[in-house]
Amino acid sequence: MENAAKNSRRDFMKAGAATLVGGALLGGVPLGAYAQNGKTIKIGLVGCGGRGTGAAFEALTASKSIKLVAMGDAFQDMLNASYAKIAGAFKEQVDVPEKRRFVGLDAYSKVIAECDVVLLATPPPFRPAHFEEAIRANKHVFMEKPLAVDVPGYRKIIATGKLAEQKKLNVVVGLQNRYDPSLKAMMDKIGEGLIGDVASVDVYYNVGAPTIHPRVPGQTELEYQLRNWRYFTWLWGGQLAGQAIHQIDVINWLMGDYPDFAAGIGGRQLF
After folding, report:
1. Mean pLDDT confidence for 30-54
2. Would you say residue 223 has pLDDT above 60?
3. Which of 63, 54, 118 has its CA nearest to residue 81?
4. Overall average pLDDT of the 32-48 stretch
5. Which of 47, 64, 83, 242 gives 52 a disulfide partner, CB atoms 3.0 to 4.6 angstroms apart?
6. pLDDT value at residue 16
7. pLDDT tens across 5-31, in order?
8. pLDDT digits (tens, 9 = 90+) for 128-178
């Protein structure tokens, strides 16, 4: 059973890298077919922070046949700020009236119901449930990494990924390095044997500290933690999954394989 589980996990990861997982937003959605038939691709945004807003920008840039029709966030101010930025840049492609701007932890479900493609960009512990509902509703999905923060969450992601394959739905994950022209050129050169056989690989991700949003009067503990989600393990999952995953993905790409297990010895902790 243990070997079967390992093989299943490795097979899923390999298939995901080849067909489901990548950094080209909406890369698998048939934009040309929609355009030829005069159809609009309706996208919805769940999670209106910086990354979610950026994902919406990238999606709307991909084709004029794409329209943003629904948005959702846990906080009204985040939704308002995101809407103002996106609508200001893509006036003709944004059709999100008040009735399709949803606020609260259940906003994701309401957004999913309104669109063809959903962009999932909330903090990662919510991703497995959001992903599952989107696929069960037959929606194409772009979702940010990390995909989850614990083993049950990742198991749900894997199961939902298999369901998406069965339904022939397109799923893309924000691992953008595989679409970087310079990195692709480097990988080609290494594959041609320019530096010989790769015996060992080290990667680094140097980044400044995220912003701390101070407590405000009347704020609940949950709101405080959600606004500072990168500082709480249950909301972030750690730096390796959250940001170093890009460099880990480059290693997997270079080696053409995925590890069966990982070991760690600790690291910097911020209090």
Report:
1. 82
2. yes
3. 54
4. 80
5. 47
6. 40
7. 444 444 444 444 333 332 355 655 655
8. 999 999 999 999 999 999 999 999 999 999 999 999 999 999 999 988 888
Number of Cβ atoms within 10 Å of the Cβ of 249: 22
CA-based nearest residue to 102, from 117, 94, 113: 113
Q: Give residue 254's identity as a one-letter amino acid code.
A: L
Q: Return the structure tokens found at 126.
A: 């919510």
User: Residue 266 phi/psi, 5° resolution?
Assistant: 100, -170
* Tokens coding 134: 């989107």
Nearest residue to 101 (alpha-carbon basis) of 109, 93, 92, 111: 111
**How far apart are alpha carbons 176 and 184 in whole angstroms?**
11
pLDDT in tens, 55-65: 999 999 988 99
Kindly compute the dihedral angle of the four CA atoms of residues 86, 89, 94, 96, in this order, to the nearest 10 degrees.
40
Coil, helix or strand for 218?
coil
Give dist(CA 86, CA 91) in Å, integer: 8
Q: Are strands 171-173 and 101-103 parallel, antiparallel or unpaired?
A: unpaired
Would you give the DSSP letter of residue 235? H
Average pLDDT, the chain: 86
pTM over 0.90: no
Q: Which residues in 88-108 are b (16+ Cβ under 10 Å) and which e?
A: eebeebbebeeebbbbeeebb
Count Cβ neighbours within 10 Å for each residue of 185-208 and write b for 16 or more, e otherwise: eebeeeeeeeeeeeeeeeeeeeee
Residue where the block lists tokens 């999606």: 59
Q: Using alpha carbons, select from 55, 33, 27 the residue that is nearest to residue 43.
A: 55
What's the Rg (C-alpha) of the chain? 19
Length reported for the chain: 271
